[in-house]
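Troubleshooting log. The previous structure file for this entry was overwritten by mistake, so regenerating from the original sequence record. Sequence copied from the archived sheet and checked twice against the printout by T.R.
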Amino acid sequence: MKFKVGISSIKQSLYIFIATFFLNSECFAEEITFFEHSNYEGESIKFTRTNSDCANLPGNWNDRISSVDTHGNCIVVWEHGGCSGKSERIAPGTRSHNHLAAIGFNDQISSYQLCSKSGSGPRPPGPPSSGLSGVRRVAVDEHNTYRRRHRSPDIRGDNEEIHRTAQRYAEYLANNDKFEHSGGKYGENLAGTGGGNQEEAVRNAVRMWYNEEPKYDYNNTGFSMETGHFTAVVWKSTTHVGIGVAWNPKSRWWVVVANYDPPGNFGGQYRENVFPPS
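Regenerated output below.
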């Protein structure tokens, strides 16, 4: 038995294949537009993506974006190139697309990717603050911003016991107008600071602790009252932080307590736990 296929049938099949290819390509192409200013104002740049691979922003757009139009798509934005550092998922139903400062990402985006779909590749790893909110998220992100400068691994905030311990002690200090260490089993940093809300108070506290860094002598390592808060923040072996915040109405400041596990500032261990900034 012989089969005969006419040229017109081959051409027709080819046209159908080409049309289907372009139709499918168009279906998977997703647009993202980044804007220089809030409320979708200022200069803008648009990208069309067809997969969830990481994409770095052009150099002149690095740390320049204040709002984003996802065109109904889902993206993950990242603090550093190569989709590293802290991240934020921006999708229909999430907040502050037009005002990235409200989610802590104003002028901080260096790379991005489409949210992974089933079968389209690996899901981007969540940041250490993934699943956290409020002061806990701020505490973890602020600590890791400074820890990365000193090549210390990211710290996590997913131990509820440490958070509860820090919060109870912050409330005790605030309610009794005291300011002294607890002597508990965790490492501990304390701060009395201003701020318009709890999140701002935590940022101020972590920044204050880290600002001791210029006084630290990397050639003559060891504990010092002038740098002990800094070394606790960047201590390499510490894996978890807990945060507590309470308002002291008498002193009119926020009491901020950070607990660290395992604790740092152990004599003889500074050289392998506190590195110069890179």
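The chain has two domains: 30-114, 134-272. Archived copy saved in two places this time.
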